[in-house]
Design a protein that fits this description.
globular, Collagenase (Catalytic Domain), single chain, 4-stranded mixed β-sheet, alpha/beta, 165 residues
């Protein structure tokens, strides 16, 4: 799996954790091992520009996903996963820091970025949270992936609560 993390934000983040959680999420979702993903970390000004350009919404947001080949997880265990370009996930550490601090179970910026990375991966794979049933499915899967990754990393304690934009 080819995953590039490009930090253009000027903020120190745990790039290895972002890479690791992205790889774990893609493996868990059974995405072809030769697929490619790009994670770009930007400052609030750059994120605000993207948010306005692509969503027509003011202000910076926490994560945006830009799918390329619209890859989907295999529907069955015996189905061969498709290979291709997943796309780009754009993260904003400034927004992540604020969200993490304000969450019901306060957590660090890096923990929020890990959660947002999984959130972005799921969006690239076609998951959404506009409807209540979609939200339940996506956020349940997001939590299961974060919990599994944290257990694999030997990280104890409660997982960050899902972002509920």
């Amino acid at each position: 799996m080819s995953i590039d993390v490009n930090n253009e934000s000027g903020t120190d983040i745990d790039e290895q954790a972002v890479l690791s959680v992205a790889r774990y999420a893609l493996n868990r979702m059974r995405i072809h091992p030769l697929s490619e993903l790009s994670v770009i970390v930007v400052d609030a000004d750059a994120m605000e520009q993207l948010h306005l350009q692509w969503m027509d919404l003011p202000g910076p947001t926490d994560v945006m996903s830009f799918p390329m080949d619209e890859l989907r997880p295999p529907a069955r265990d015996d189905e061969e996963p498709a290979q291709g370009l997943l796309g780009d996930i754009v993260l904003c550490p400034e927004v992540a820091a604020k969200q993490g601090a304000e969450a019901p179970t306060a957590h660090s910026m890096d923990e929020e970025l890990q959660l947002l990375t999984v959130h972005g991966v799921l969006h690239l794979l076609g998951y959404d949270h506009e409807e209540p049933a979609e939200k339940t499915e996506m956020f349940g899967l997001q939590q299961a992936i974060i919990d599994g990754w944290r257990a694999e990393q030997g990280i104890g304690g409660p997982s960050p609560a899902p972002t509920t934009r």
